[in-house]
Amino acid sequence: MQPEAAAPYEVWLPNTQQWLSLRAAPNPAGGYWVFWDNVTARKQAEAAQQRSSQLLLDIEAVARTGSYDADLASGSFYFSDGMYRLFGVAPQAFVLTLEFINARSHPDDVAAVQQVLDEAVRTKLPYTYRRRICRADGEWRTLEAHGEVRADAASNVVRLRGLVQDITERVQAEQALHESRDLLQSVFDTSLISMSVLYAVRDEAGQVQDFRLGLVNKELERETGRPDLVGKFYAQEYPGIRQVGIFDLMLRALATGEPQGMDYFYDHEGFSRWFTCQFVKLGDGLVATNLDITARKTAEQERLKNLRLLEQAEAVAGLGSWDYDLLTSSMRWSDGMYHLFGLPVGSAVAPSHYLAAVLDEDRPKATQLVHRLAAGEGFEEILRLRVREQLKTVRIKAVVVHDEAGQLARVLGVDLDISELQRLEADNLRLRLGQQHALFEAVQAAQEAERKRIAEGLHNGIGQILYATKLHLDRLHAPLLGAFPALAAARQEADQLLSEAIRQTRALSHEIIPMTLKDFGIAAALQDICRKMSTPQLRLHCQVALDDEAAPLPASLQTALYYIAQELTQNIAKHALGATDASLELETMPGWVLLRAEDNGPGFAPGAANSPGLGLRSIRDRVALLGGQLQLGLVPTGGAYVRIRIPLTSTSIPTP
Amino acid sequence: MIRLFLVDDHAVLRYGLRSLFQQEASIQVVGEAENGLQLLAQLPTTPCDVVLLDLHMPELDGLATTQRLRAEFPDVKILVLSMVDNERAIGQVLAAGASGYILKNATRDEMLVGVRAVAAGRRFLCSELGLNVLDKFLIGAPEPPPKLVNGLSPREQGILQLVADGLTTAQIAEKLFTSPRTVETHRQNIMEKTGAKNTAALVRAAVSQGWLA
Prior knowledge:
The structure holds 2 protein chains of 2 kinds.
Chain A: E1 9-13, E2 18-26, E3 32-38, H1 40-63, E4 65-71, E5 76-79, H2 81-86, H3 98-104, H4 107-123, E6 127-134, E7 140-151, E8 157-166, H5 168-190, E9 194-202, E10 208-216, H6 218-224, H7 234-237, H8 240-243, H9 246-256, E11 260-266, E12 273-282, E13 285-292, H10 294-317, E14 319-325, E15 330-333, H11 335-341, H12 352-357, H13 363-374, E16 379-387, E17 390-402, E18 408-417, H14 419-474, H15 478-481, H16 485-512, H17 515-533, E19 539-545, H18 555-575, E20 581-589, E21 592-599, H19 614-625, E22 629-634, E23 640-647
Helix pairs in contact in A: 14-16, 17-18, 18-19
Chain B: E1 2-7, H1 11-22, E2 27-33, H2 36-42, E3 50-53, H3 62-72, E4 77-82, H4 87-95, E5 100-103, H5 108-119, E6 124-125, H6 127-140, H7 154-164, H8 169-176, H9 180-194, H10 199-208
Parallel strand pairs in B: 1-2, 1-3, 3-4, 4-5, 5-6
């Protein structure tokens, strides 16, 4: 078989699904030799190649790609149709060259691409580069090439083959993404709040073990002093979050999808500050915001502390403060005020609360107070209030506050519970009076003892001796002295002097110690006084009406009354000149003993009521010490009266 | 012969008395005691007619001794000799059974008269006491105090004024430093004296009669 130039004829045998190549050659016999080959395999390969070529072309067209094949040895280039299209020119309209491509390329990229290619030739590794070109229509596009290096058996690089793709849209998208990410980051970074994006880190069971920091803003970096947090595990870096409950809060935000937040004091990993945090679920992670609120918290705590202090101070001092707004006629109370008035804290208040609580006696004052409050006047007042069946004395002081324009704006006030103070003062007074009284009684007792000693000295000593002397003198009676008249007269004189001495001693001793009082009681003693003081010119009546049911008057009080009565009658005898009739009256009634002296004399000398004599002053002092009162004046029919009222208490100690 | 027993806690006085009575033949001092108890102890062996008794003594005083003597020795007469000039004390001891009372200021003669009088079963009071009592009696019956036209006392007049002023009994009591009870008593007396049936009539009368200041 000799292959001749005659073109072979290929025929498809559908029955056998074979391609045959028929070739005719003249044979010596004048005929033709027909040779055939089964070329099915070749035909199929050719078809496949053609199809793939076409496919490549189609793909290039659709995917806006092109390819090239550079023969380094010959320096020739093959550019696919796609390459032409990438440059916006008709395929194969001219011969595409590297020069053309470089001319259309962004100047910055030419050298860069060349460098990539040189590097690829050197390393023989696959390469990639980007090149910005200006298309025929003037539009700038970005091309991306992936290529490979082919070497011959001697490892010499013989060709470069590459696939070029127009990635302008992708680049643009990438850039847009980049820009939006930058924007986000810049928003992130310009925020004064620490922000981060955290991704849940789960174990095989799906349990969240920790959170990985995906995004961290500048503030958080600044706050933590850690620029390296991205990719780190949150709880691993900051174990403290598990202790203060933040980790649980994060889990809750993740589990429920509900934003979670809390204020917390973070005292771990070198922090010692207050933060507020907020966690919002984002996919299988969280967006976390964190703000240092230490300053605010400190101020808040300071304010709270001050408020507490004020509240405590108010509670301790029984103090309340209030604020009356003149514009709205509204009143605000501190807690202390509510406590003062025994009202639930926070309930509505008005000035009328004063009227509701005030005692009837103080109602006019309270009414005036409310008026002055409404009129925007300052005041200072003491009111007695009945709060929960308890009497409270409250001192109220109010000052007016003007606004910037100088107009009356509000009245500020303080109410101070002075009940305790008053009680203490009263106690103190009572104590002092009690001490005074005790002192008075002690002095009186001492005086009594002294008087008694003197009286007994007079009575039992001097008096008896005087009488014994008189008796001895009497032995020199008339018959014996008859012969000596001068002696008899002298004896007589001595006898009379002795008698007078005895009488005066006796009188003095009885005056010093009121025997009747001791032996017969106050009523008899006063009657004795009146009887003794009575003269034919001045009659002293005595009237005593003592409560029979009441306990007998204390001995000390009886003694005091006796001396007072004595002074009163002596005063009348001495000063009520011309008086013919006088009375001394003693009576008791529940709680009081009353003593009165009246005369029908000319009354007090002018000015006497203001500057009573020594006697009256000593009576006054005595009465005051007994907690009593003394009045003196003129009776309508003329004459003077002295009225004394002394409280009767079990201890005889005056109570206010 | 009168047998006399001296009872006084002052030795110097007993000595004086003894000397005094020694001069009298009709009176014999049969014993001395410092107090009532000593007297009572001696009396059974030392009978006497008259006891000259001091009031203020330790152990058993004059008054108690008098009571004991009256009960235990009813025949013995008691003559008190004391410094005490108080009428009540005197009345008390006389009431208890003493026959006489002499102040320790009496003269020898008075003393002798007293002892004899008592011994004779009469009562005796020394002259100073007798004169005192007379003085008091004379003072006790003075001319009556001047009554006002309506017969009211100054006190009643004052209360009438206050009643007319419209004060209640309690207010009047408070004003006058007296008790409501006393004011009420005065009020009743005023009504009786003026013959007014009630307060309104009383006030009317007081105004019309010009009783008010």
